[in-house]
Amino acid sequence: MAGICFFTGHTPVSAQKIELGAGLGGLNYKGDISPSVRLRFFRPGGSLFFRYNPSQALSLRAEIMGGLITASDEHSKDPFQQARNMSFRSRVFEGSTVAEYNFLNYEDRRFAFNWTPYVFGGIGLMKFSPSPQTASYKTSSLVLPYGVGIKYQVKRPWNIGLELGARKTFSDYLDNLGGEPVNNDKLQQGDPSLKDSYLFLRLSVSYTFYKIVCP
Fold it and tell me: Are strands 158-169 and 197-212 parallel, antiparallel or unpaired?
C-alpha cells in the first residue's frame, strides 16, 4: 500500500521536521583588550548544526562551532592600553543547544515566498586555548548564546540563513588577562568584574529532509 501511495502522485508531501546545516562566518571578542566590538578583530569561524522543527513557530537547534578570536592593545586610542601593549590569539570550540522563535509561519511552501526573522537563546559549553598562556587557569566555561537571525527557503529542500549571536561567558581569561590581581603592576591587570564574551556572525546553508505521508 505504501508503494501505491508513493507512485500515484496524489499523496500530500509533508515536511520532515529535521534539518542538517553548516555555517561560515566570523568571531569577534569583547573584553579587557577590546572593550567594544571592532571590525579589525573579526576572525574566521564555522559550524555544523542539527535543527528540529516541532512547529511553525518553534525550532530547536544543536550546534558545534570552532574558530579564532584575537585582539591587541596597539590598536587602541587609550593611553593605558597603549602602554600595556598586550595581545592574544585563541582557538575557540563550542557546543550549544538553543531554541529559536520564528516570528512568521516558517513552513514548507512549494510555490510561495517563505522566510522569517527569529530570535534565539540557549546554553552551551566552550573550550579555548589562548596564546600565550602565561598562567594556570581553567580554559573552559559555560556560555549563554543568544541573538537574532533570518532564514529563507530558497528552493525545497535548501534553506539559507544569516545570524548574529552573542556568547556570554563566565570566564575572564579568554584574553589571558583576568582574575584577581596577582601583583601591583597595573599593566598586568584586567577588570575582574568584566567577563569576556564573543560574537559569532555567520551565513548558513541547510538541507531539510522530506517524506511521503500516506493518508
Answer: antiparallel
